[in-house]
Design brief:
340 residues, 74% helix
């Protein structure tokens, strides 16, 4: 039996808690509004809605909302949704409950590529970041897969995790070396490498938009086939799923979503690992529901985590990537011990 099935088996048969779409959408809108309202200067929710619906350039709060807080909220929403969907797809196709962009080396592959681009080629143009992040993520994915396949027993959930840990450590070491020998790069990327939403540029989001839209569209398109594939490759083949094409499409979606997220905010762990498991508690193991719900819940999660990052040690702000790890690690342990 697959690793996913092993871990998930206690949950099988447990009555699922209904998770209505309308409540999820309402929670997302509320988290989005709270994210804009909370900050160094609190803004009433009524004023937030007023600014969004009837912008007045003479009001200072409206300018703060549109120029500073709204872009940050949009990026948090997009990155949370993207990493959650990428993690869900990886867990479904690898049938590995621990699969996610961070653990399998994709985040560090994308980060390594961007660091090399900035440090050795001096590239600062935001338009190149998604492409090079995608190349780095793809290279890391192929390297992890190649190591796992060459191991005795082939690409099992265990060998994939071990290979991902080795590649992640290897790339993290090279990133550290580059930071040590190039202080300018270190200063430019110091905050970005911790996964930060502070001061993110909307221009990068525009450059990432085609990748994000394509990745989300493919994820929704293959969701039904991923459900079938999660039952086993032979079963999927017997039911008419073209396994090779499915793997290529999932790989494209995961690379596009992960690379875009890294280009936007840097590496941010645990989002892609925790959110799909939380969603499964409510919607079961059908990826036609896991994928869209992961988009919404992932967006809500990162919006709320970013609020904590801004207010926990106010006026000092913590990088959001650090908070996702602080919150995500114990949450995942709780999921493993109590719910899964």
């Amino acid at each position: 039996m697959s690793g996913e099935a092993d871990v998930m088996s206690p949950a099988v048969g447990r009555k699922l808690i209904p998770l209505p779409w309308l409540w999820c959408i309402f929670a997302l809108l509320l988290a989005f509004a709270l994210h804009i309202a909370v900050g160094a200067k609190s803004i009433p929710l009524g004023e937030v809605f007023n600014a969004l619906l009837d912008f007045d350039e003479k009001k200072f709060d409206h300018i703060v909302i549109w120029q500073l807080r709204l872009p940050r909220a949009v990026i948090a929403l997009v990155v949370g949704a993207s990493l959650s969907v990428a993690g869900a797809l990886m867990q479904g196709v690898t049938r590995n409950p621990l699969a996610e962009p961070s653990i399998l080396g994709l985040l560090h592959g994308a980060s390594f590529s961007v660091v090399v681009l900035v440090s050795f080629f001096g590239v600062q143009d935001a338009g190149w970041l998604p492409l090079f992040a995608a190349i780095g993520a793809l290279g890391a994915a192929l390297l992890v897969w190649g190591i796992a396949v060459s191991a005795p027993g082939g690409a099992t959930p265990l060998t994939l995790i071990l290979s991902g840990a080795a590649v992640t450590s290897f790339l993290a070491s090279f990133i550290a070396v580059i930071k040590l020998i190039d202080q300018d790069t270190f200063e430019n990327l110091r905050v970005w490498l911790t996964g930060s939403l502070a001061g993110r540029d909307l221009n990068v989001l525009w450059w990432c938009s085609p990748w994000l839209i394509a990745g989300m569209a493919v994820a929704l398109l293959v969701a039904r086939q991923v459900t079938t594939f999660a039952m086993g490759e032979e079963t999927a083949t017997g039911l008419g799923v073209k396994v090779g094409r499915l793997k290529v499409m999932v790989l494209f979606a995961v690379i596009a979503l992960t690379a875009s997220s890294v280009a936007l905010v840097g590496p941010m762990g645990f989002v892609g690992l925790v959110i799909p498991h939380v969603v499964r508690l409510f919607v079961g193991h059908d990826y036609r529901r896991i994928v869209p719900y992961s988009m919404i819940v992932g967006g809500i999660y990162l919006l709320l985590v970013d609020i904590v990052a801004r207010v926990a040690l106010s006026p000092v702000e913590i990088s959001t990537g650090i908070v996702t790890s602080i919150v995500g690690a114990p949450l995942f342990v709780w999921l493993v011990r109590v719910k899964l």
